[in-house]
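Help: read this over?
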Amino acid sequence: MTVALGIDVGGTKLAAARIDVASGEILATARRPTDPGRGAEAVLADCVELGREAAGDGAVAAVGLAVCELVDPDGRVRSAETVDWRDTDLAAAFAPLGPLRVESDVRAAAVAEARLGAGRGEPDFLYVGIGTGISHCLVTGGRPRAGAHGSAIGTGAPYVERWSGGLALARRTGHRTAREALDDPASAAIVDDAARRLGTALAALLNALDPGVLVIGGGLGLDPGYRERAVAAMRLEVYDPAAARVPVRPAALGADAAVVGAALAAVRG
């Protein structure tokens, strides 16, 4: 059995898991809030500690780090929306645990869904992660498309997460969390507007990419009400009637997609 360590660095939570990469089985986990306001070094220290906790006494073949930032094809972090690791030697930090591969969280999640989840067996599908932020990844032949600079993940121009992501929903409605906004009838008009804007951005992706299947993950993406409102708005704006009928599936691996995908990417490339 080949075992790898996956670590998912999200906008609100950190997760580490020891993964059987053949089956995707999660053997051990550790989690804590991201709290990025503490600074990048503190978040990195937490990630290493969570990795040790999840690894336990067992050896791992490699470590995969999925981050909610731009990551170029060589594994260099190129943005600093949540944590600024652009000049950090991440491989050295994780060296005691094993060799490191860094990947964008949305591409890691797409890899997991391609090999073990809702995209398994699909020659061409689009994965969209809708959570604290919003990003996407086109998967063709089982491989995620990174783009020339690793930036083929930004959804919308300007990014639709400014209105429709979890942080945006909380900010726009005056709530602490997106969950509170979704549950508050007084926030329904703002939530509807957010879902409509998201649907328009998804339609632009479908018009440009024409995927065979659309897989939606992330905390907000896995909320049926929000997802269905966005998809309904999307279908109205897709030019080709055949493309507008694209099957839409929730991510089969749910909230674990990125951490599993990080481990898979670390071992299989």
